[in-house]
Amino acid sequence: MRFLHTADLHLGRSFPYEREEDRAIGRKDRFRTFERILKLGIQEQVDYLFLVGDIFEQDKVTAAEVDYVLACLDHAPFTTLLLLGNHDYKLYDEVAARLPENVRLFSNEAMDRYEDSSRGVVFYGTSWTRASYNKILQFDGEAGDEGLHRVLLHHGNWSGGDGYFPVDANLLHAFDYVALGHVHKPTMYENKLQMCGTPEPLDHTDRGNLGVVLGELDEVLTTRYVPVAERSLKQKNYLRRDASDDEAIVADAKALVRSGDFIYSFYLAGAYSGILERELRRLFDEKGILYELHWEKDLPRIIERMEREHEGDLLGAFLARAKAYDGDEETRLALCDLGLRALLGEDYDS
Ligand SMILES: [Mn+2]
């Protein structure tokens, strides 16, 4: 029995880009990745595609998009085993009403069992019915499984007592493969227990060449992690001591941003420069690449210096009022930062 195992596509959502037009691209990326996963399944002639929860982002995906996904699965030459997780459980009735013949949706009422005796395998799984569960998935063993390989599909953590429906770690012995979803980082606990991770980056920590698990379960189990992501994250840190570093930073960034296959995250530390920031943004925008730019500023130190330098003028008066603003420390700092930028523009260099 050959299979592909994926989860956490969160179709309808995007990588959290700063700009709305980038988020529209990020949203599309996830559908392209879904299509690539289907293609991979066809190429690899798998018998099953495991979709282990959070395939959709229930509050962001449209009904037409759900239909599109189901139509794609309908045309696939393999069987899809689908269960819904904490981000798509509300779509249960909608999906159940439109379910293609070759898609099996695991019940959201009890642990569901699906036997494929011709391939000598039995699958267990359950869909979520709510956003969090303070219970542990348990399995008492079923009669009638003799001579069959047992596979568990589950959306939740392995072991651990969180509110996200973890699996009872003691039942590892009962299964030949445990296909988990939910945590976005791929984690191969052991060969027969795998958290596949998201196949397309969803936040700044989803690094690496993300993919899906391709496996074969017969006498033995073999699995392989196959990259499928549309884009991967590239991160670069720059330290700007003063204006004399600008030329080198721009040259380095220019040499780096060659490919649209990446999401570039630039982290700048040291002396802030509005001029450098604008120059970098213009460079990246011209190349049409997807990026984000963050300054790690030592704001308290900058504000302190500004207060000293601008005691008695308009800027000093603004800072005094902003510092007295009724909010938390982070809000006050952000307010000072925003005001300094508005009042000083490109001269806002620390
Ligand atoms: Mn989840």
Automatic annotation (TrEMBL):
SUPFAM superfamilies: Metallo-dependent phosphatases
InterPro entries registered for this protein in UniProt: Calcineurin-like_PHP (IPR004843), DNA_Repair-Maintenance_Comp (IPR050535), Metallo-depent_PP-like (IPR029052), Mre11_N (IPR041796)
Gene3D superfamilies, per the entry: 3.60.21.10
One MF term in the entry's GO annotations: exonuclease activity
Keywords, alphabetical: Exonuclease, Hydrolase, Nuclease
The UniProt record lists the keyword Nuclease: yes
Top EC category: hydrolase
Sequence ranges assigned to domain Calcineurin-like phosphoesterase in this UniProt record: 1-186
Enzyme Commission code(s) on record: 3.1.-.-
PANTHER family: COMPONENT OF ATP-DEPENDENT DSDNA EXONUCLEASE (PTHR30337)
Protein name per the record: DNA repair exonuclease
Species of origin: Aedoeadaptatus acetigenes
